[in-house]
Structures are given as structure tokens and as C-alpha cells.
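[Meeting: bench + compute handoff]

Bench side (C.D.) handed over the final construct sequence. Compute side (W.E.) agreed to return the predicted structure before the next meeting so the bench team could plan truncations. Sequence as handed over:
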Amino acid sequence: MPYVPLNRERLMRALRRLAELAHAQGLTLELSLYGGAVFTLVYGSRDATRDVDGIVRPAAAAQPLIATVAREQDLPDDWLNPHVEQFLSPHESKRAWTGADFGPGLRVTVPTAAYLLALKLRACRAPLPGYAGDEGDIRFLIEKTRPRSLAAVAASFEKFFPGDTLDDRAEALVKETLSTLKRCPRAPPLSARSRSKPTPSPPSAGSFATGCTASAATPPAPALPSPPTKNRLSSPPAFPKAKWPMPGSPPTPN
């Protein structure tokens, strides 16, 4: 089957159908999402993902239902991909996703932003033709979590993967992104902006590679008042003609 990106609408439709099938079987599935699905569904920083990195339990009972969703909605057989399990931390940090209610058939959890950043830094895959890699996601998560320094990022990474350290490429990317953020103050939240003023589009996940986004245009200075226009048709005020001799002037010779 040719690759078709899974956008938010298709992902939600698939998960809702999975929840319906599970409920009909009297099951409650526990689904932990990772990777592109989290950036697409939870953060909205991606338009789509290639597949759904997720661990579902009970796995044996869920597999026939996952296959049914794939068949009904023309999805790849591995649209829900469990292979992410080999890359997970032994000290996971997850939270319930409250952005959607799938009913009693499905409960969804997602990594905390700090844990997801650690997962992405550990992979830190370079972009390739047709593949964006991890750089944009890493920049997005650093902008979201606002760590104080490279040391803070390294300490958080160590918490999830004891004994591991950031490789040179990941460290350089963190340094670059933190440096850029120091020059780019955080934009005010949307609720604090006036609804009457146009809101600039949010930066894409990779926009921090080239620097700050453009700030709002400075309003023009108020125009100075124009000098009064001289009326060319009016004549200067008339003064009375002097009468000679003027007082105190020498006598006029005859």
C-alpha cells in the first residue's frame, strides 16, 4: 500500500473506531502514544505523521481490532506500530491525554514534554530526502520547555536514560536552539492578545534554525501638522499713508 500521511482527522477517526470495537468486546484498551502521533494530535506542531508509534495493552486482544480498523479505513497493516518499545526509557514519565474522549473502550496516555524531548535527543536523526528527521521536533520541545541551559537538558536526559550522555550532534543542536531562544522573547499567549488585531502565524517547528520570527510592525509615527497655507489672493494689510511733513522732520525746501 502506498504511503499516505495520517493527519489529525484520520488519526482521530481510527482511534475512535478502535475504541468502539474495544467497547463492543467489553474491553478497555490502554494506549501509550509516542513520536509523530503526539506532535500531530497533542501539540499540533505537525500536520501529519507516517504511522502511530504506540504500545497498546492488552496486546493480544487488541491486535484483531487494530487489523479491523486498518481494513475498514484503508490504513497500512502496521498503522499502529509497537516497535517504539525498544527505544523507551525504563523510567517513563507519562500523563493522561485529555484532549479527546474516546469513551470507555480506550484510554490514552502521552509522554511528558521532558520525556519526549529525551526520546528525541537520544534518536536525533538527521533529515534525509523525504524525511524531516528529529531536529524540528527537538527545537519545538526546547522552545516549549524552556530549559535554563545545556546542563539542565543533560540532567533531564540522564534522569530518563541513566548512564547515557548526549552525543555531539544532539548537544550542538541544543546549544544552537538555546542561543536562538535567548534572542527571541516568548510571544504573549493568545488570550492576552487583542482579538481586533491580526495574530501572526506561529513559527514552524524548524523556524528556530534561522533565528527569530518577524515581530509586529512598528506603528507609523503620527503626522506632524502642516503649516497654515498662505492665501495668495489676499493682499497685505493696508497702512495709512504718511502725511508730510512728519513731526520733527526738517522743513521741506520751497
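W.E. noted at the follow-up: The beta strands are 6-7, 29-34, 48-49, 52-57, 80-81, 94-96, 106-111. C.D. will use this when planning the next construct.
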